[in-house]
Amino acid sequence: MIEISFASMLRILSAGALETLKLLPFCIAFSLIGGVVLGIIQSSRVPIVNQIIALYVLIMRGIPPLIILFLVFFTANLDSGVVSAILALSLYHVAYVTEIVRGGISSISRGQFEAGRSLGLRNTQVMHRVIIPQIWRGILPALAGQYIILVKDTALVSVVGVREILWSGRQIMQLTYDPFPIYLLIGVFFYVICFLLERLSVFAERRARAFASISGGRNR
Asked: Are 163 and 19 in contact (CB under 8 A)?
């Protein structure tokens, strides 16, 4: 058993938390882009394409993210555990974001689509200019909840060699043989990250409401 100071623990865990934070922007961006694209396509109701997307969503929602991590790492022949983690978590969360976006689009009345077409807009233009700008306020809370789950899922990526915060904590435990304070600190780190993400989502939701109010006032 080796004594490690609290400051040293924080320094080691902070380095691991930094690795966790490096993953998040890529996973959020890729899953959001993929989810929006697939959600729009699924809302277009093209029979064969819809069935393929629905099957993809069903498979991803039925398999634990840890299995997805292993499948990507061992089948994609990627040398980097970080790239494997980003790809696996993005693929996994795309399925959930797709359903969130599809639900947001389906909540818009069909009259909005018909009004856009009556103005001579093509279906893609109606979706891009009329429908998508309206759904953000409604889906932001669900997206925030999904990305908080994504933050927690990053605790799994140490299995493919990513030296994130949980990996760093295990290294400390191998020296101190005292897991409780380490896991407590890891929990605090995750709580802070999730709290900041939740606050950011609240700010974005308020801005979306303010923008909708201004737009509504201009259209009167």
From this structure: yes
Q: What is the pLDDT of residues 117-144, one digit of tens each?
A: 787 778 778 888 788 888 888 899 999 9
Q: In terms of residues, how long is the chain?
A: 220
Homologous superfamily of the 6-218 domain (CATH): MetI-like (1.10.3720.10)
pTM of the model: 0.87
**Which residues have C-beta within 8 Å of that of residue 29, sequence separation ≥ 6?**
none
Q: Count other C-beta atoms under 10 Å from residue 156's C-beta.
A: 20
Q: At what angle do helices 6-43 and 165-176 cross, to 10 degrees?
A: 150
Please name the residues in contact with 12: beta carbons below 8 A apart, sequence gap of 6 or more.
168, 171, 172
Tokens at residue 95, please?
């399925």
Residue with tokens 């934070």: 21
SS3 category, 23: helix
Cβ-Cβ contacts under 8 Å for 96 (sequence gap 6 or more): 35, 60, 61, 146, 149
Residue 109: CB atoms within 10 A of its CB come to 8
What does the alpha-carbon distance between residue 137 and residue 38 come to, in Å, rounded to a whole number?
A: 19
Tokens describing residue 94 = 């795309």
Q: What's the pLDDT at 32?
A: 96
**Amino acid type, 181:** P
